[in-house]
Amino acid sequence: MKNLLLFLIVICSNAVFSQKITDTISSKKLNEDREIIIGLPPSYQKHPNQKYPVLVLLDGDFLFDAFQGALSYGNYWDDLPEVIIVGITQNKNNERETDCAIDETTSLPTEKGESFFEFMGMELLPYIEKKYRTAPFKMIAGLDTTAAFLNCYLYKDNPVFDAYISMSPELPAGMEEQIPERLAAIKKPIFYYHSSAEGDVKKMRNRIIALDEVAKKISIPTLNYRFDDFKGASHYSLVLNSIPSALYQIFSVYQPISTTEFNEKIAVLPSGYVDYLAKKYDVIEKSFALKLAIRLNDFKAIEAAILKNKAYNEFEPLAQLAKKNYPKSMLADYQLGQMYEKTGENAKAIKAYLTAFQREEIGDLTKDMMVERADALKKLLPKKGKKGKEEPVVEETPPTDAVPTDTPPTEATPTDTPPTEEKKKE
């Protein structure tokens, strides 16, 4: 009930804080004016150097609000990035059938469908890229008739879109065989999502399942593939199931480190925990052109892995990452302090913690904490005038709260304005 209430609040507030613009494009390809709906991210004005992925929605009349609500909710929990949404109006004059005309023999756009195909690739996208700050990553989504049509972009050797959300596509004969062939042949990275449901239209459902039977056998590193078959859903209700599933598939690497990722992918590594973290954000940047500051939650996850596996030497490269992402904060010196403390170099640890004390607090790291750690270690140092070694530090297992959980993570923001504290969420 709490999450449902929050979902409704996010959707309602989204209309206030995000920008929704109705625009018109004069198309030479279509020889007519076409209405489009633009949804700009809430942070679009706040971060003038940030670029955003683009999501093109066929059937923008009724899919726009559903996608915008899901993206707003996911972004609230820092699971999904902000994107620029472009909805194409197709129901005012019943354009969706003529816009998406496909030849039943070749499965290629025909008549006005061919013009509409060129309109999106040669007019709409250049218009959006020129007017707004867009990242190279482009997605497209549609339902039944429009879902089948968006598959036509896969017939290009270098498809203009990087991710495809095809919900209950009304596939023409032969397309269920051609699409898997194209997915296997395309060299660039492709995200492909399609769905059906138990209560879907039978003739459409049979071809969708036939497509999945072949496509799921494709095993190439450039293809990120998913098919959902929803139980108890109808042709129209499957949309509300498909949207979050598709978005979370496409942006899975964007999400903060979860308990599952920590336990199954990080904690089991013999070494290379900091490398894992650096590569995760490198993939985010290369895949979606999003350059983010590494989340504090993710720093804590790697810290927990280092402590769990007693790989204390990795605190040094972790400190380097911290200095790069949060240069004014105490995070980097805190990491160095932990390395020295765990390896018995208490004097160096004290110095690191006191240096951290002079820097900005961040997340749950406070000045009081740094002083307390330094004072505790001072008691272990040899007394003046007495010979002896520093008392060794008793090995501890990482505290349970150091392991990432599925509670709201730290907000990720563009690196031109790195955050100084974790996002508070109730």
Automatic annotation (TrEMBL):
Keyword Repressor found: no
InterPro entries noted in UniProt: AB_hydrolase_fold, Esterase-like, Mycobacterial_A85_antigen, TPR-like_helical_dom_sf
Compositional bias ranges of the Low complexity kind: 395-415
Keywords: Hydrolase
Residue span of region Disordered: 380-426
Domain of life assignment: Bacteria
One term of GO molecular function: hydrolase activity
Transmembrane segments: none
PANTHER family: ENTEROCHELIN ESTERASE-RELATED (PTHR48098), FERRI-BACILLIBACTIN ESTERASE BESA (PTHR48098:SF6)
Protein name: Alpha/beta hydrolase-fold protein
Organism: Flavobacterium paronense
